[in-house]
Design brief:
Chain lengths: 760, 412, 273
C-alpha cells in the first residue's frame, strides 16, 4: 500500500475524529472527576429543618447562655445566646467546641464495671439496675459496719440541686465528706467571712470600675466568668478605664493591661501592703469609710487589757516602699505612684486569685488585696467588690437522721475542713491525698466523683494516684472517659449538659445573683442517666430515712419542686437574675461582732491568738525545694486555649494551641532568653525540667515576656485519658508541683515550685 | 540477538550487557513508580510539602526539565527557521531530550496536583488570566508537537522502516517537519515564558514578583531566554555524557562548536538582561514594597546572598564568557565546565524562583520556612531521570539518532 | 471575575478587627471551624498543615524583659480586591481552573471545592497564608460527623479551602429577605460566625460601601484610593503590595501598626514616625 500526502492526512484526521466521536474516553474522564467530587468516604451532612434551643454552658463556672443550632435532631453548632446578661452572643472557644464533647469519642456510652487492673481500660458494660445495686450493696455494707463516714464524694461545686442532692444523700447516709474542688473563690469566701463576717461569694462590679488593679489574676486568661471578663475588658477599653496587671510573666492580661508590673512570683501581698503603706502615710484613704465602717485600722487595747497592733501600724512599720521594692522587685517609685493613682481613682478595684484562679491562695494575701479595697472604701459600691449572698433557692425540708448517720457526721471531715484546725475552710481537697497516704485519719472505703477530675487536676499527681489506690471502691459519674473515670471501679455516666435539665447557680465573680439553666438540646445519645436521678434512686434503694430524705420520683420533679416560681423564668428565658440587685451598704454590710469591716480579723485571732495572722500580711510562701539544687522557679500559666479543669480540651481547641506551647507530643516551657543562654538552651531544644516533685521532658520556648530565672509551663496538657486528640500531648503541670497548705485556712497556696532545667 | 533491530553500520554492546544496564536503571524507575502510585492512592500527604510550600521539589523539577528541554525548540528553531543546517546532526538528540523532558514534566504535573482526576479542569474551566493555564495549554500542545517530531525517528528503525506504510509516513512527516518545528518554537517561546510568568505575576510575593510589559512580567522573557540559552548546553552535556558512556565520538566538533557558540551568546545576552532585571528589582520594585535587597537574602543561611552570586556570576557570566570565546569552547575541559555551570545556573534560577519565593515570609510576623523533600518526592523526581536514561539507551541502540556516528566510528 | 453588579448597590463586604480589644482568646478560630465543618487531625501542632481559615497570630515587639509586648492578630482571608477592586486578587488571578473567583457583587472571594484540582498555585500567590490544602482525607471520629452543618460542604482530600466570609450566611439572609419581600439584607442579618462569637466584640463585619454600616464608620475607607483607611489608627496588612484587602485592623500601638507592612529603615512613612 502506498501512502501519499492525501491518504496520510485522511488517516490522521479520520483517526482523530473517530476517537473524538467515541463517547468512551470522555464519559470515563467525566465520570472519574464526578466520582472524585463525591467520594463516599467524605461525609455529606444531611439537610433538614433548622431550629435553635437556648440553654446554658456548664463547661466552666462562667454560666454563659448558649443557642444551639439544630438540623432535625442533630445539634450542629453552639452559639452564644444573644441578649444573655453574661455573654450576649459571645462565647469562648470551649463553649463553641461543645458538640465535640457531645458527639465525641470520649463519651462513656453506658454504665461500665472495671474488669482488669485499675486504669487498664478493660470494662464490662452493665445495666443500670446492676450498677445501682452494686453501689447500694457497698454502701449498705459500710453502713452496717458503722462506717458511713468512710464514703467520700468529690464535686466540682457544692451549689445547685445536684450537689445538694449528693449532700443530702450523704448526710442522711452518715458521711461528712462532701468535698468540693477548690479555687480562688474559696479564698475570697474566707476573706469575706473573716473581714465582713458574712457567708458570701465575692462579686466584682468590673464593668463600672475605672481603675482595675489585678494582682496576678488572668482577667482575660480564664479568670472568673471568662466571656463576661472579655466583655468587661472591651468595656474598659471603650471607657478608658485603666488596668494594671502585676505578674512575673507577660500574660495576655498583662499585654492588654495599660501597665504590666513585672513582680517576683509570690510577693504580690507585699506589694499590696506597700501600696497600703503609701496610702496610709499620705492619708489618701477614704476616711469616711475607714473611720465609720471599719475596725482594726489602728491599734487598740482589748477588754483584757491586752494591746493589739492595727493595720496602720503594721503597714507603716513593715511595708515601706524601699523594703517592699526589695521583696517584690518593683521599684519604690513605681509603688508610690501606683498607690497614689489607685487611691485617687474614681472607682478603683483591687483583685487577686492567680491566673485562671484554679488554686486558692494565702489568707494574708487575699486579705492584703482586700484591705486595699477597704482603704478606698470601694466595698459593696458601684465599681467595687461586692459580697454576694449565696443562692438560697434550695429550701428542702429538714432532714431526718438515724443514729448511724449522726455518729458518722460527728466523726468530722477527713480533710480537716471545718474542724478546729482549719475552721474556716469549707473543704480541703488538696489535703486529702496526703491524709489518705499517711493513713492517720480514718481513711475512705468508697469515693464518688461527680463533675470533677481530681486524678488530673490535683497537684502532685504521684501522691494523688497513690491515695486513690488506697480507696477500695471508686465510682465515677463522668460523661467522659477522663483520668478519674479511667481509674475508677464503676462508671455511672451522666448525660452531658446538652442532654439534661439542671440549674447552674452563681457563675464565678458575677456581681448580681444569677441562675442559669440547662435543658436537653438533643435526646440522650447513649445509655446514660442524669446523675440527679441516679442519686435519688440510690437513696430510694437504700430505703428508710435515706429514701425519705430524697422523696422525689425523678430529678425533673425535684427540680420543678425546688425552683418553684423560678422554673418558668428558667425554662422560658434560660436564666433567672436580679439586674437591680444592690448589696447592703454601710453598717448593714458587715456582720462581724463589731458590725464593721475588720482590718483586724477577730475571728482569726480567736483561733490562732496571733495578731499577725489576723491582719493582712505578707508571709513568704517559699516554694518547695532547695535553692542550690533547683535554682529556678517554675510557675504555671493559663490560657483560654487549653481547658485545665475537669473538662478535657476538645479537638477544635487543641487546634488553636500555638506551636510555641505544644509541638508534637511535647510541651514547651517559657524561658527568658538570658536564662536560656546561661543554661545553654536554644529555641525548640529539648530539656529536662526537674522539681522536687518529679521530672518531665519539655522543649524550650524563648520568651522575652518572662522574668529571668522563672520558667512558665502551660496548664491543661499531659492528659493520659480521653481520646487521641488530647491524650499524650505534653505533660501535666501537676506532675511537677505540690500543694502548700496555708497555715490559717489549710487551702493550697502554692504558686509555683523550685525547678532545674537542663539540656536533655 | 537483536542485531536485526540495530541500525546498519554501527556497533552496539552485547544484548545481555545492555539488558543488565536497563534492569538496574529500571529498578530505580520502578521505585519511582511505586512512589508515584503511593502519591496517587494516598494523596499528597506522602510529600513533605505543606501550606507554606504548596510548590516544592516537583514544580522546581518541572520548571527545570522544561528549561533544559529547551534545547529541542531552540535547536529546531535554529535549524528549521534560521537555517543552521549543520545542526541536523544533533537535532534528533535534541528532540529526544526534549521529548523526555516534556513528558517528564507532564508526568510530574500529573502527580503534583491534589485531584489528578480533575486535571483536565484546567482546560475545561480555563482561566485565561492564569499563567498556569497558559503553561498547561502550551505544554500539552508542544508535547504533541515533540511527539510528532519524535515519531519519524522511531520510524527510522531498520525493521519498522521496512514496512512501506511506515516508510512513507516517515517520509511525509519529514517533509512537513519544518511546520511543526516552527509551531513548536512558537509555542515554546510562550510556555517557557509563561513558566517564568508563574512566579513573576505573584504580586503578593515580592521575591518572585517582577514588573513587565502588558500582562507579561520580565521573568516571562527571562525564562524563555534562559531556556534557549541553556537548553542547547544541556543537549551538549548529554551528548558528551553519551559519548563518554559509549566511548565514541557521536557528533562532530564543528556542530558542537556552533551550538556552543550560539548558546554562549544567548547566555551572555541573557545574563546581561538578568543583571539589569535584578538591579531594577532590587533598586525599584522591592523598595516600593518596603524591601531592601538584603531583606531577601538574610533570613536563612541557605538563602544568603551567595545564591545570587552563584547564579549570576559563577553560573551565568563565567560560562557565557567561556562559550563566546572560541578558545574557551574549543578547550574540551572548559567547554564541559561551561555547559555544566550553565545547567547548574538555570537549575538554581528555577530553584530560587520557586522555593525561595515560598521560603521567604511576606507577613512581617512570620518566619522563614525550610523544606526537605520526602523520599516519595525524591523517588518520583528521579523517576523521569531513570526513564530518560532508558529511553535514550533504547533510542541510541535501535535508532539512528546520531547521523554522524557511522562516519566517526567506521565498523571495520 | 463576575462583571455583574457594577451598579450602585454593589456591596463590598469587609471586616474591621480592633487589635486593642482582641484578647487572643481563639473563639473566632473555633467558631469558624464549627461553622464551616473544618476537619481536624490527631496532631495539629504543625501549623503548616493545620487548616485554620481564621488564624490568630501572636505578634511580639521584639524588646527584652520587661519591655516585651505581645499583640494578637486574627487573620481570616482578606478577600483581596486587587488594584481598583477589579477582582485581580493575588489568588483569583492565578487559579487556572477558575475554582476561586471574585464577586464584584459582594467583594467576596469564593472557593469552589469541587472544581479545584489542587494545583496550589493560589497558595503560592497568597501572601497572607490564608489558603489551606487538604493534605489528608477529612475524618471525623465515629459519631462526630453528626455535628456537621449542611450549609457548608465537607471538603475532600486534595483541594484548597479558605475563609468564605461565611458566604452561606449571606445566602440564607438573602433568602429570608426575599421571603419577606425585601431586596436588601440588613447589617445585622449577615454577620460572620467569627464576628458573632468574638467575646470581646473585637470584630466588626459589614458592607464597606455602606456609610450606615459600622465597618465603614470605623475605618472610613477612601474609595478613590483603593479603600485606604481614613482612620489613622486603622491599617491593612501588606497595604503596599496593592492586594487591596477587605480586612482592616485598628490599633493605637505604633509597633503593631508597623508590623502590618514592610518599611525600609530609611523610610519616614512608618507608623509612629
Ligand atoms: N435561596 C437561594 N437558593 C439558591 C441560591 C441562592 O443564592 N439562594 N443559589 C443557587 C445556586 S447558584 C446554586 S449552585 C444552588 C446550589 O444549591 P445546592 O446544590 O443545594 O448546593 P449546596 O447547598 O452548596 O450543596 C448541596 C449539598 O451537597 C453537599 N455536598 C458538598 N460537597 C459534596 C460532594 O462532594 N459530594 C456530594 N455528593 N455532596 C456534596 C452539601 O453538603 C450539600 O448538602 O443553589 C441555588 N439556589
Ligand atoms: N461559602 C460559599 N461560597 C459560595 C457558595 C457556597 O455555597 N458557599 N456557592 C458558590 C456558587 S455555586 C455560586 S453560583 C456563587 C454565587 O455567588 P454570587 O455570584 O455572588 O451570586 P449571588 O450571591 O446569588 O448574587 C447574585 C446577585 O445578582 C443580583 N441579581 C439578581 N437578579 C439580577 C438581574 O436580573 N440583573 C442583575 N444585574 N443582577 C441581578 C442579586 O441582587 C444578587 O446580588 O457563590 C459561590 N460561593
Ligand atoms: S466561658 Fe465557660 S461557660 Fe462560657 S462558654 Fe466558655 S466554657 Fe462555657
Ligand atoms: S474571638 Fe475576638 S478576642 Fe478572641 S481572638 Fe478572635 S478576635 Fe480576638
Ligand atoms: S487573602 Fe489570600 S486567599 Fe484571600 S483573597 Fe487575598 S490572596 Fe486570596
Ligand atoms: S489549588 Fe484549586 S483554587 Fe487553587 S489555583 Fe489550583 S485549582 Fe485554583
Ligand atoms: S468570616 Fe466565616 S469563614 Fe471567614 S474566618 Fe470568619 S467564620 Fe471563618
Ligand atoms: Mo451556583
Amino acid at each position: 500500500m502506498k501512502i501519499d500526502r492525501r491518504s496520510f492526512l485522511s488517516f490522521v484526521i479520520g483517526g482523530a475524529a473517530g476517537t473524538a466521536l467515541s463517547p468512551l474516553p470522555y464519559k470515563l474522564t467525566d465520570d472519574l472527576s464526578i466520582w472524585s467530587q463525591n467520594w463516599p468516604w467524605t461525609p455529606v451532612p444531611p439537610d433538614g429543618e433548622v431550629s435553635y434551643v437556648d440553654s446554658t454552658c456548664t463547661l466552666c463556672p462562667g454560666g454563659c447562655g448558649i443557642s444551639v443550632r439544630k438540623v432535625d435532631q442533630r445539634a450542629v453548632k453552639v452559639e452564644g445566646m444573644k441578649g444573655h446578661p453574661i455573654n450576649d452572643g459571645g462565647l469562648c472557644l470551649l463553649g463553641l467546641s461543645g458538640l465535640q464533647l457531645l458527639y465525641g469519642p470520649t463519651r462513656v456510652r453506658q454504665p461500665l464495671q472495671r474488669m482488669g487492673r485499675r486504669g487498664e481500660g478493660r470494662w464490662r458494660a452493665i445495666s443500670w439496675p446492676e450498677a445501682i445495686s452494686q453501689v447500694v450493696a457497698k454502701m449498705r455494707e459500710l453502713r452496717s459496719a458503722d462506717n458511713p463516714h468512710t464514703v467520700g464524694c468529690i464535686l466540682e461545686s457544692d451549689r445547685g440541686t445536684v450537689p445538694l442532692l449528693f449532700d443530702r444523700f450523704l448526710t442522711a447516709y452518715g458521711s461528712p465528706n462532701l468535698i468540693r474542688t477548690p479555687s480562688y473563690q474559696d479564698s475570697y469566701e474566707l476573706t469575706l467571712h473573716v473581714m465582713h463576717g458574712v457567708q458570701a461569694m465575692a462579686g466584682f462590679d468590673l464593668e463600672n470600675a475605672t481603675f482595675v488593679f489585678s494582682f496576678g489574676s488572668g482577667l482575660i486568661d480564664g479568670w472568673g466568668s471568662p466571656v463576661r471578663m472579655f466583655r468587661a475588658h472591651a468595656a474598659w477599653r471603650q471607657n478608658n478605664a485603666k488596668v494594671i496587671q502585676v505578674e512575673p510573666r507577660l500574660s495576655n492580661t498583662a499585654a492588654k493591661a495599660d501597665h504590666w508590673i513585672a513582680i517576683r512570683p509570690g510577693t504580690e501581698a507585699a506589694l499590696a501592703l506597700g501600696m497600703a503603706h503609701v496610702i496610709v502615710k499620705e492619708s489618701l484613704y477614704r476616711k469616711e469609710f475607714v473611720e465609720n465602717n471599719a475596725t482594726g485600722f489602728s491599734g487598740w487595747t482589748d477588754g483584757k487589757g491586752q494591746s493589739h497592733m492595727g493595720f496602720k501600724e503594721l503597714v507603716l512599720a513593715e511595708y515601706g516602699p524601699d523594703k517592699v521594692a526589695q521583696i517584690t522587685g518593683v521599684g519604690a517609685d513605681a509603688i508610690e505612684s501606683l498607690a497614689r493613682e489607685f487611691a485617687r481613682a474614681e472607682r478603683p478595684l483591687a483583685l487577686c486569685g492567680r491566673g485562671r484562679g484554679m488554686t486558692p491562695g494565702s489568707t494574708g494575701e487575699f486579705m492584703a488585696v482586700h484591705a486595699l479595697n477597704a482603704l478606698v472604701g470601694n466595698i459593696n459600691r458601684p465599681g467595687g467588690i461586692w459580697a454576694l449572698p449565696e443562692p438560697d433557692y434550695v429550701g428542702w425540708a429538714e432532714l431526718e437522721m438515724d443514729d448511724v448517720a449522726s455518729r458518722g457526721i460527728q466523726r468530722g471531715s477527713i480533710d480537716g475542713s471545718g474542724n478546729s484546725r482549719y475552721l474556716f475552710a469549707r473543704s480541703l481537697l488538696n489535703r486529702l491525698p496526703e491524709i489518705l497516704n499517711a493513713g492517720k485519719e480514718y481513711g475512705l472505703q468508697m469515693l464518688m466523683v461527680h463533675g470533677a477530675n481530681p486524678c488530673y487536676t490535683l497537684p502532685d499527681s504521684k501522691t494523688v494516684n497513690a491515695a486513690f489506690g488506697k480507696i477500695p471502691f471508686v465510682v465515677s459519674f463522668s460523661s467522659y472517659m477522663d483520668e478519674t473515670a479511667k481509674n475508677s471501679d464503676l462508671i455511672l455516666p451522666n448525660h452531658t449538659y446538652l442532654e439534661r435539665y439542671e440549674d447552674v447557680p452563681a457563675p464565678a465573680g458575677l456581681s448580681k445573683p444569677f441562675i442559669g439553666f440547662t435543658r436537653p438540646v438533643v435526646p440522650p445519645q447513649f445509655n446514660t442517666r442524669h446523675t440527679g436521678d441516679v442519686v435519688i434512686q440510690l437513696a430510694k434503694t437504700m430505703g428508710g430515712h435515706i429514701g425519705r430524705a430524697l422523696p422525689w420520683g425523678s430529678y425533673e420533679e425535684c427540680l420543678k419542686d425546688t425552683l418553684k416560681d423560678k422554673w418558668r423564668a428558667l425554662t422560658e428565658e434560660g436564666f433567672w437574675h436580679q439586674p437591680d440587685f444592690r448589696p447592703p451598704a454601710g453598717a448593714k454590710a458587715f456582720e462581724t461582732a463589731s458590725q464593721k469591716f475588720e482590718f483586724f480579723a477577730t475571728a482569726i485571732h480567736a483561733e490562732t491568738k496571733k495578731d499577725l495572722d489576723a491582719l493582712p500580711h505578707y508571709r513568704p510562701v517559699e516554694p518547695e525545694g532547695d535553692k542550690s539544687a533547683y535554682p529556678l522557679v517554675l510557675i504555671p500559666c493559663d490560657s483560654m486555649r487549653l481547658a485545665a479543669g475537669f473538662i478535657g480540651t476538645p479537638p477544635f481547641m487543641i487546634k488553636t494551641v500555638e506551636d510555641t506551647v505544644l509541638k508534637g507530643e511535647q510541651v514547651l516551657v517559657e524561658v527568658n532568653p538570658e536564662t536560656a543562654k546561661r543554661l545553654g538552651l536554644a529555641e525548640g531544644k529539648t530539656a529536662v525540667l526537674a522539681t522536687p516533685k518529679g521530672q518531665i521532658t519539655v522543649k524550650v520556648h524563648l520568651f522575652d515576656g518572662i522574668m529571668p530565672d522563672v520558667v512558665a509551663m502551660p496548664r491543661g496538657l499531659g492528659h493520659s485519658a480521653y481520646d487521641k486528640y488530647l491524650a499524650k500531648k505534653g505533660a501535666n503541670f501537676n506532675e511537677v508541683v505540690g500543694p502548700v497548705a496555708d497555715p490559717i485556712s489549710g487551702l493550697d497556696t502554692a504558686w509555683g515550685i523550685r525547678a532545674r532545667l537542663q539540656r536533655a | 540477538m537483536d542485531a536485526a533491530l540495530i541500525p546498519k553500520g554501527v556497533k552496539r554492546c552485547p544484548l545481555n550487557q545492555f539488558a543488565i544496564g536497563i534492569a538496574i536503571v529500571g529498578a530505580v524507575a520502578l521505585w519511582g513508580v511505586f512512589a508515584m502510585l503511593l502519591v496517587w492512592i494516598k494523596g499528597l500527604n506522602q510529600t513533605n510539602m505543606n501550606d507554606a510550600y504548596g510548590f516544592a521539589l516537583w514544580i522546581w523539577a518541572d520548571l527545570t526539565v522544561i528549561a533544559l528541554g529547551g534545547g529541542a525548540f531552540f535547536t529546531g528553531f535554529l535549524k528549521y527557521i534560521v537555517g543552521k543546517d549543520e545542526l541536523k546532526n544533533i537535532i534528533n538528540y535534541a528532540v529526544l531530550i526534549g521529548f523526555i523532558c516534556y513528558s517528564s514534566a507532564l508526568l510530574i504535573l500529573g502527580i503534583d496536583i491534589g485531584q489528578p482526576l480533575r486535571g483536565w479542569f484546567i482546560f475545561w474551566h480555563a482561566n485565561v488570566h492564569s499563567m498556569l493555564t497558559e503553561v498547561a495549554f502550551c505544554l500539552t500542545v508542544y508535547f504533541g508537537v515533540l511527539t510528532i517530531e519524535f515519531i519519524p525517528l522511531i520510524l527510522e528503525n531498520r525493521q519498522i522502516d521496512r514496512v512501506p506504510f511506515f516508510h512513507n509516513l516517515s517520509h511525509n512527516m519529514h517533509e512537513i517537519m519544518a511546520v511543526f518545528a516552527a509551531t513548536g518554537a512558537f509555542l515554546s517561546f510562550f510556555h517557557q515564558g509563561s513558566l517564568g510568568g508563574v512566579p513573576g505575576v505573584l504580586f503578593g510575593r515580592p521575591f518572585g514578583f517582577r514588573e513587565g510589559i502588558f500582562i507579561w512580567p520580565w521573568t516571562f522573557f527571562l525564562f524563555t531566554w534562559s531556556a534557549a540559552a541553556v537548553g542547547p548546553c544541556f543537549t551538549i552535556l548529554i551528548t558528551k555524557i553519551t559519548e563518554a558512556v559509549t566511548g565514541k565520538k557521536l557528533v562532530k566538533p564543528n556542530v558542537i562548536d556552533l551550538l556552543a557558540k550560539i548558546s554562549g551568546w544567548m547566555l551572555l545576552t541573557y545574563i546581561t538582561a538578568k543583571i539589569i532585571d535584578t538591579w531594577y528589582w532590587a533598586a525599584v520594585t522591592a523598595p516600593s514594597k518596603g524591601f531592601s535587597l538584603m531583606d531577601f537574602y538574610s533570613g536563612h543561611p541557605l538563602y544568603g546572598i551567595w545564591i545570587l552570586i552563584a547564579e549570576i556570576l559563577v553560573c551565568g557570566v563565567l560560562p557565557a564568557l567561556i562559550l563566546v570565546s572560541a578558545k574557551g569552547r574549543q578547550n574540551p575541559g572548559a567547554l564541559l565546565a561551561a555547559v555544566i555551570l550553565a545547567v547548574i545556573g538555570v537549575c538554581l534560577n528555577r530553584w530560587v524562583m520557586v522555593l525561595q519565593v515560598l521560603a521567604m515570609p511576606v507577613l512581617t510576623f512570620e518566619n522563614w520556612v525550610m523544606y526537605f523533600p520526602s523520599w516519595q518526592e525524591v523517588a518520583t523526581t528521579i523517576l523521569p531521570v531513570a526513564y530518560g536514561i532508558i529511553l535514550i539507551a533504547l533510542s541510541y541502540r535501535y535508532l539512528p539518532i546520531f547521523p554522524q556516528e557511522q562516519e566517526l566510528n567506521p565498523v571495520e | 471575575m463576575k462583571e455583574e453588579g457594577k451598579g450602585n448597590n454593589a456591596k463590598k463586604f469587609g471586616m474591621v478587627i480592633d487589635l486593642d480589644k482582641c484578647t487572643g482568646c481563639g473563639s473566632c478560630m473555633v467558631a469558624c471551624m464549627a461553622e464551616n465543618n473544618v476537619p481536624f487531625k490527631t496532631d495539629e501542632s504543625n501549623k503548616l498543615d493545620s487548616i485554620t481559615w481564621m488564624r490568630v497570630y501572636r505578634l511580639r515587639n521584639g524588646k527584652p524583659f520587661p519591655s516585651a509586648d505581645i499583640c494578637y492578630l486574627p487573620r481570616p482571608c482578606m478577600h483581596c480586591g486587587g488594584v481598583g477592586d477589579q477582582g485581580h486578587s493575588p489568588c483569583v488571578s492565578v487559579c487556572p481552573a477558575t475554582a476561586t473567583d471574585y464577586s464584584t457583587e459582594t467583594g467576596i472571594v469564593s472557593q469552589i471545592y469541587t472544581r479545584c484540582f489542587g494545583c496550589r498555585y493560589c497558595m503560592a500567590a497568597c501572601p497572607y497564608h490564608a489558603r489551606y490544602f487538604n493534605w489528608w482525607d477529612p475524618v471525623w471520629p465515629d459519631g462526630m460527623e453528626k455535628y456537621l452543618s449542611p450549609n457548608v460542604s465537607a471538603r475532600m482530600r486534595g483541594v484548597v479551602e479558605k475563609c468564605s466570609f461565611c458566604f452561606h450566611r449571606y445566602q440564607l439572609a438573602k433568602d429570608r429577605a426575599f421571603v419577606e419581600g425585601r431586596r436588601e439584607v440588613k447589617e445585622e442579618e449577615y454577620q460572620t460566625a467569627c464576628t458573632q462569637a468574638c467575646p470581646a466584640g473585637a470584630i466588626t463585619f459589614g458592607d464597606l460601601n455602606n456609610p450606615d454600616h459600622r465597618v465603614n464608620q470605623l475605618v472610613k475607607p477612601d474609595r478613590r484610593h483603593g479603600g485606604r483607611p481614613g482612620n489613622p489608627h486603622a491599617f491593612r496588612l501588606l497595604e503596599r503590595l496593592q492586594t487591596n484587602p477587605k480586612v482592616y485592623y485598628i490599633s493605637g500601638r505604633d509597633w503593631v501598626r508597623q508590623a502590618g507592612d514592610h518599611y525600609l529603615k530609611s523610610e519616614a512613612n512608618r507608623p509612629g514616625h
